[in-house]
Amino acid sequence: MNPEPISAGGARAAEPAAHTAPRKRLHSYGLLGRSIAEGVGSFLLVFATAVAIFSGTGGVSSPLGVGLAAAAAMVAFGYVSGGHFNPAISLGSAAAGRTSWKALPVYVVAQLIGALLAYLILWVLFQGHPELTDTRQIFSVLANGYGTDYQLGFPLASALLAEVVATALLVAVFLGASARRIPAVSAAFAVGVTYAVLLSILAPITGGSLNPARSTAAAIFAGGDSLEQLWLFWAAPVLGALIAGLIYRSVHLSESDAQRGDDTDEDADLLADEAADANELDNADVEEAKAQHPSGTATGTVAGASAAAPTKMSRENDDDARGFFDGDDDGGRPGTGRR
């Protein structure tokens, strides 16, 4: 139940605006609901990635198909869980203080289940085709890898560096695009485009992982070298996500400290003088109003309060409309107290 609208800063409005439905905070859906959304979104993203790779010679290139699937999943399910659908993004969000650490393992398990289910359905589809006898070879096309026997033969060091940098960029874009000031659709578009661009770069190097859940599902069904090399497609995304998340957190904390500020004695005196002047002006206005309308003072006070209430509600409703990705999983915002 969520009878009262909750603003992005955590304040509750006195009553909802007419003809508007209150936006739920992510924790309103419960950890189970959020994990289910993550699993469904992961299924959609991984399934679309596999299909896009197989149909890469068609009208839509595989990186663009993956980007569109990521954007669609974020728009469809992001308001429930935050729209991660990728263990690397969940880890980066936790490191940045945007997702609670207690929700992280649940998210990762849900994402893995969604990815495995997507590949299981593909396996069933391939088994039903009479001319497809070696399904492992088919799944090896979907698996990530490195070395002389994979794609263009990039070595381990090159594959590791490429995946770390690419994952860090993806997580950084997600964290920046899903901030409160960015509309949800714009955030989904930014993340989808980033997926497409980074996968285009990584395709000839590692096959484009960026997502440990997808790499794990593909390696399990492909077997062989794919399973032996799977460690890199966990280590690199984890390292890249931590780098991006910690940088985001440090920058955000620095901005919060700068906004709070440590005023000098001179600044404090100036602020005190300005506050005193403003108070004197307000008192003068009140006395003048009483002198001109002695019988309407109470009415005027009530009217002024009534006029101020919609303004406050309007501001809170504006906060509610600023994107549904922000402040997910009870994690709040780094550098800010909880209300």
Low-confidence stretches: 1-24, 262-271, 296-310, 312-324, 330-339
Largest sheet descriptor: none
- Any guess at the CATH architecture of the largest domain? Up-down Bundle
**Beta strands, count:** 0
Count the DSSP helices: 12
CATH first level of the largest domain: which class?
Answer: Mainly Alpha
Order of helices and strands: HHHHHHHHHHHH
Overall pLDDT score: 77
Q: For this structure, what is the CATH homologous superfamily of the largest domain?
A: Glycerol uptake facilitator protein
Shape: elongated
Question: How widely separated are the two ends?
Answer: 19 Å
Radius of gyration: 26 Å
Report on the architecture of this protein.
- This protein is mainly α.
- The chain has two domains: about 25-260, Glycerol uptake facilitator protein (Up-down Bundle); about 265-320.
- The protein has twelve helices and no strands.
- It has helices at about 30-55, 60-80, 85-95, 105-125, 135-140, 155-175, 185-205, 210-220, 225-230, 230-260, 265-290, 295-320.
- Helix 4 runs parallel beside helix 8 (about 210-220).
- The longest helix is centred in the last third of the chain and has 29 residues, at about 230-260.
- It is elongated.
- Residues about 1-25, about 260-270, about 295-310, about 310-325 and about 330-339 have low confidence and may be disordered.
